[in-house]
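[Automated response] Your request has been received and processed.

Submitted sequence:
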Amino acid sequence: MNLNFSYAALVTALLFATFSTLLPSSPGYFGTFHAGILAALTLFGYEANASLAFAVTVHGIIWLSGTAIGLATFIIPKNLKVINRIIKFRLSCI
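Generated structure:
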């Protein structure tokens, strides 16, 4: 399996993937995102398996990083409030 993609192929694949998200799809753009990358990379002559592996990897990185950041912004402020309450309680006991 050849995973040495050219720069032009990668830029074209990400452009296709971005424009494919304009189409109606399932939540998270599962399917249309992959089809866009698959179409672009097969136009450049790459194997379908390598193209699909790249699409799934890129989509996973994009989706997981966004989910992790969103989860962190959801959890951290709540923990900061608890920490502030503990500090204020401890200071009031002094």
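Summary generated for your ticket: DSSP finds three helices and no strands in the chain. The two ends are 67 Å apart (CA to CA).
If you did not submit this request, please reply to this message.
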